Amino acid sequence: MNNKNTLSMAEETDRFLKRVALVTFLVSVAFVFRAGRLMVDPDIAGYLRIGQVVFGLSILFILLPTALRYSRKRSGCPKEACNNIDGYMYQMFQKAGFTAFKFGFIFFSMIDIFLVDFFEAYSVELLLRVGVSALLGAFSISFFRLVYADSEDELDDEFGGGAEA
Amino acid sequence: MSAELDNRIRVFRAEHRISQGELADIIGVSRKTISTIEVGKFVPSTIIALKIAKHFGVPVEEVFSLPQ
Q: How far, in Å, are A33, A34, A146, B40 from residue A5 at the CA level?
């Protein structure tokens, strides 16, 4: 089986997509911090800013190595062998995007109906940051729920070792 | 996935003494893709289904079938 240094392109793509989803969740939380800064006292806003910076750095440390490894591997790979768009993870990524779109539609409709007065009291910036955070959060949570729900049913692997290609 | 598709990948893997990871490498997908197809959690594309059938040397309908 593959180890970390000799991952196939498909495994590398899966790993990259999972990291992107994780980073999307962290960006969503960072947006919550940023939105919170618009609503709280300056003292507390300072703490939220620190949290925002910590999340920003985490995002860099999590995504950058994987993104570099992925793009390096992809650059040396024939196009037809590298397009893993049929794979499970890529399909779940798309499905999560669709779920986030549906959630966003309902979210903004509800705000328009019930909470428009609340957001008018603050600013459009607050509404945008809360909205973007909700969309990104919905995407990442939906992705991980799809990928990890019932994953204990997928155990391998008693037939290995005698492969003929 | 909402659609359901029965498959005999596990049976063919047993016959060929091949692991999910080895089959995944041969087909050009991840092990997760093979395992989720095998348990019926993920309906594969036509391309992946044909590649799996081709590897085992059987028609695709011997590997995949609609539930009765």
A: 37, 38, 27, 30
